[in-house]
Write a structure and sequence with these properties.
Layout (H helix, E strand, L loop, with lengths): L18 E4 L8 H7 L2 E3 L3 E8 L2 E5 L2 E5 L3 E5 L4 E3 L7 E7 L1 H5 L16 E3 L2 H18 L6 H21 L6 H16 L7 H7 L4 H12 L3 H18 L6 H7 L5 H12 L3 H8 L1
Antiparallel strand pairs: 1-8, 2-7, 3-6, 3-8, 4-5, 4-7, 6-9
């Protein structure tokens, strides 16, 4: 589960599914392997950390989160995870990739993080149910020959609980508006380096630019243009963090900018730092 291992397949706890769980006394890598994979990694899979007792600190895309009792933090593919030195007194970590999702009976809107809240709190009753499901999954994953359908059935229950709690944190969003916002996020992800215009996106989603602006502003707090800009700069920071691009010009072109100087000015406007300063902080 790390930068040097791009998938879960080699470390899966089931012979037929790419899935792995870690909890106190279960599933931990050896000290040697843990050192190889490091404390910071760009994830190629989904990862959940649920703390049922105690507290922890985790980093998602270079932003720190405090996770307390009955709280869960989730990571999406391609995000940067920064591990803490401790996870709390009682916790469960679960990683799985798209192959598991493809085999589930439904989709889960929260996995696109439309409300931009990767940390979720649970009421005591929901937390108890969540912990019970994690325990069953741990038992199922303790034997590599377990029928994958049993694992998927409980993974479906787990994601349903999380999806419900995610949207219960605020006013229940209108389904059509949420669907449009998710469509916006998906389109941006799939066409990020093409720099689509707001009009192009609105036409793709069969809506007006004004309606698109209102929905994106409602769920993200920023305009569609700002959302796309912030996503591009986040991708730049991710690639610099992992040393995937060595020069500003190369990075700018890779992200679809024709003018490296414009990219540099935009980077400083969003982050408050020059590209050179960000590289220096990483060294």
């Amino acid at each position: 589960m790390g930068k040097n291992d791009p998938s879960l397949k080699n470390m899966s706890q089931n012979k037929q599914l790419p899935i792995r769980m870690v909890s106190p006394g279960f599933g931990h890598l050896s000290a040697e392997n843990a050192k190889i994979h490091g404390l910071t990694k760009r994830l190629p899979y989904y990862l959940f950390l649920f703390v049922s007792d105690g507290s922890s600190k985790h980093g998602v895309d270079l932003e720190k989160f405090d996770i307390g009792k009955n709280e869960l933090l989730f990571f999406l593919p391609h995000q940067i995870q920064q591990l803490p030195s401790a996870h709390g007194n009682d916790y469960y970590k679960l990683g799985f990739d798209e192959e598991c999702l493809f085999r589930l009976p439904r989709q889960y809107s929260f996995l696109l993080d439309p409300l931009n809240q990767p940390k979720i709190g649970f009421e005591p009753a929901a937390s108890a149910r969540l912990k019970a499901i994690f325990k069953i999954l741990q038992e199922l994953l303790s034997t590599p020959d377990t029928d994958p359908e049993l694992i998927l059935a409980h993974l479906n229950s787990l994601l349903t609980e999380i999806n419900t709690a995610y949207f219960a944190a605020g006013d229940k969003p209108a389904e059509d508006k949420l669907s449009k916002f998710i469509g916006f996020k998906v389109f941006v992800e799939n066409n990020l380096t093409d720099h689509p215009t707001i009009r192009q996106i609105a036409e793709e989603l069969a809506m007006s630019t004004d309606s698109l602006y209102q929905i994106v502003k409602q769920y993200s707090g920023v305009s569609p243009k700002e959302f796309i800009t912030n996503r591009l700069i986040l991708e730049a920071r991710r690639r610099m963090y992992y040393g995937e691009r060595s020069t500003v010009k190369e990075l700018a072109f890779e992200l679809g900018f024709n003018d490296p100087d414009y990219f540099s000015r935009l980077f400083k406007k969003v982050t408050g730092k020059t590209v050179a300063a960000f590289f220096q902080d990483l060294s």
